[in-house]
Design a protein that fits this description.
protease, alpha+beta, 4 helices, about 160 residues, Cytidine Deaminase, domain 2, 5-stranded mixed sheet, two-stranded antiparallel ribbon, 2 domains
Length: about 160
């Protein structure tokens, strides 16, 4: 089920006149942002990544850990959901993150996870896993650019806060 962009900038479903489900609208919004990022060719600012990832995971009622994989020029290679958790946490395994980095031949990465509570302040566990992943990825030549903590209406960049 795809969307068609109208000349006036609006969208409609192909061959469908029935009401549109919220999950379909969110999926379409994610597609629009992904295409916009692909057209840019690269992640230029933390806000570019934050806008995309907020739409992708900000609405979830359980925690998920995602990685935006980039080449050395910060062009998007892949976006992965690597771990899924519960209401207030998810287990992140550095070995699996490094394995995927090698699979996509990444040169850089942006980490992201959501806080279903909407409070985007980083926990001590968030800071610890960021440091562990930064060190693990550095061993295989992958630069960690940022770790974004995403809520329904806000996003916190650890890089912008100087916590990287």
């Amino acid at each position: 089920m795809g969307f068609i962009r109208q000349l006036d900038g609006t969208y409609r479903f192909q061959r469908q006149r029935t009401p549109v489900a919220e999950c379909d609208i969110l999926a379409a919004a994610e597609d629009i942002l992904r295409l916009r990022l692909e057209r840019q060719g690269a992640i230029k600012t933390p806000r570019d990544a934050a806008e995309f990832l907020r739409l992708r995971i900000g609405h979830l009622v359980h925690e998920e850990f995602h990685v935006l994989w980039l080449d050395t020029r910060h062009r998007i290679l892949a976006v992965d959901r690597l771990f899924s958790g519960t209401l207030d946490g998810t287990a992140v395994h550095p070995r699996e993150v490094v394995r995927r980095a090698l699979d996509v031949n990444a040169g850089a990465a942006v980490l992201a996870h959501n806080h279903p509570s909407g409070v985007c302040e980083p926990s001590s566990a968030d800071l610890l896993i960021t440091e562990e992943l930064k060190n693990a990825l550095r061993l295989v030549g992958v630069r960690l650019l940022d770790h974004l903590i995403v809520g329904a209406g806000a996003t916190v960049s650890l890089a912008e806060r100087g916590a990287m």
